DNA sequence: TTAGGGTTAG
């Protein structure tokens, strides 16, 4: 009787706690809840809450209603079973009652708790230690830490001393609450430490550690491990010993907390303590290292696994291979493939896919193809959609357009399940091959096959349209996305603006060396710059912040249409934006170009200075763009001055060798071409002399003639523009004179290769120049004629002949050259 | 437990 009333006391306590929660919502009501009144109350709360009070109250009311729902079927049937047993006059077993009670407590079905307790009382059954234990067990099963804690309190009230197992159960139950509500681990740990015993199951501590993994709290986990490892000095052990699982949790915690190195150290510690890690333990650390691309360190662990005698697995190798692959260590990755095969661990399709993917992204398409062949020969694996996607990407890099399309057909034939990644790869091939029609067809095919196009697919299709000059289709695709209710993201918008920029440039047909005057917006022609700005507005409406890409493409639309003022305004807009839209090098360069092409060389120069003053160093493209502006505006003095400045920058910039080539502020053939063209146009003799000076410097730097400077008897002029070719001829004949006079070399035939078809339209001249459309062979012929007539006969007054067979080559015969040298003396 | 994507400037 006594213990029965104690148990009733416990259940009252729990119910009172619940009423307290409820009365927080309805303070005026103070109720003892019978099942019926509870339901009624819940109904009332729900009614008042949904009839217009706050959202928060409504939600809480719903929770309460849920709490008063009918007990789960499992409990109900158990209650019925108890009822029937008593009706039949049979005896209930303790265990059955304990379990039922536990289920009720865990489910917070307090009415049922009372029912069971009443039945137990009728049966003269008391609440044993087993009753409490079962309640705790059930609370643990469903992860009800709060009820478990209350049971623990009830035990104390009932003067039943909790055992280490009970403490462990409560703590573990509490930890299960941590996912929903952070902080439970701390309470659980407090409980464990307040009841120290080496007999508390280590699982309870492991449960705390698992919470710490979720919270990436590596510091706390290491602290706890230390506590478990070593009892305080000269004292006997008060906490359970850490096990393999404990160490694993701590390691996982370190890795989750981005402290992989800590994880490795703990792995070492395990060795000292004689605990053998499992494959899984290694996997956590290896994948952690892999994520940080520390493949070397990960490789060491592979050897450690051998030392421990832990079997390596395919996923371990795959993780490592992909780490190497992402770290651009394709050689190492391939050697790992060989190593695993040698060890009898057969590569899976994932292994091949990782490797092929890395080759594809590194542009090593030959390696990718090789691996694809290996994969096809390997009877253990079957290429899947990943494989084909990556091989197609490799083809794309290798410009093997047709091969990629054939692979696409193969996938369809093989009925391999398709996805949007696959189509993205194929469409990218079409985009790079300027096959906009095909890209659109592929998009249709996707829809036909029931593969929903992703935003990436749309971006790439838009890029394909842009590359094909189909800006209208690009904009249509944007509309299509919108009508489908897809959110158009930054990159997709950027692809569309880029499409406009490309179309603008294509239709611009810049004049060389002359200012370009704008079309007025209302002149009936399409204004790309207007559309680009419209898109920027659209982005704003969609709450998407344009970035450097968006702006620089819009600026180059302006540049192509002579809208230099609008370009300046966009730069200004960028400056006013957030840190992510601050004008970068590309945006500045595009604006410099816009001004420069419009003959606004001072604005171009101002932008250039403004850029460097803002801490953005000029790269080669920026310099060249400014030079081009000076050329358009016919400013030989400024061009020469800037040339000097650029040489200085090229000589003084630190760590220049560490820069990617295009970032270096060193002059290239384009720089030299623009500087020389600008100087050569001047009537001034000083400028004419500067042409030769600049040219000599260009040769010194290896910009012209490359490493073939020594073979002055055969000089390649192909790819040089007319003014540069003229300077080149002067330079070469003077050089030969030096060779003969100063160095005593014999005079030989001097050949100028002017190239067949290679002189104009490709190397020389900008995209969009009129020369690209001209017949190449006739152009190269003109360089040949130019060298012959204008330079040799005109400038240098050397009479030479054009051999019949060696088309494109102008030869000065040795006798002619010898006479010329003599005359010069 | 392990594998995949897109945008810019001379």
From TrEMBL:
Where does each PPR repeat begin and end? 243-277, 278-312, 313-347, 348-383, 384-418, 419-453, 454-488, 547-581, 584-618, 619-649
Biased segments, Polar residues type: 770-781
Its keywords, alphabetically, are: Repeat
Per UniProt, residues of the Pentatricopeptide repeat-containing protein-mitochondrial domain are 104-226
Chain residue ranges for the region called Disordered:
761-781
Occurrences of domain PROP1-like PPR (ranges): 388-504
> PROSITE patterns attached here?
PPR
Q: Which segments cross the bilayer? A: none
N-terminal signal peptide: none
Family per record: Belongs to the PPR family. P subfamily.
Q: What is this protein called?
A: Pentatricopeptide repeat-containing protein
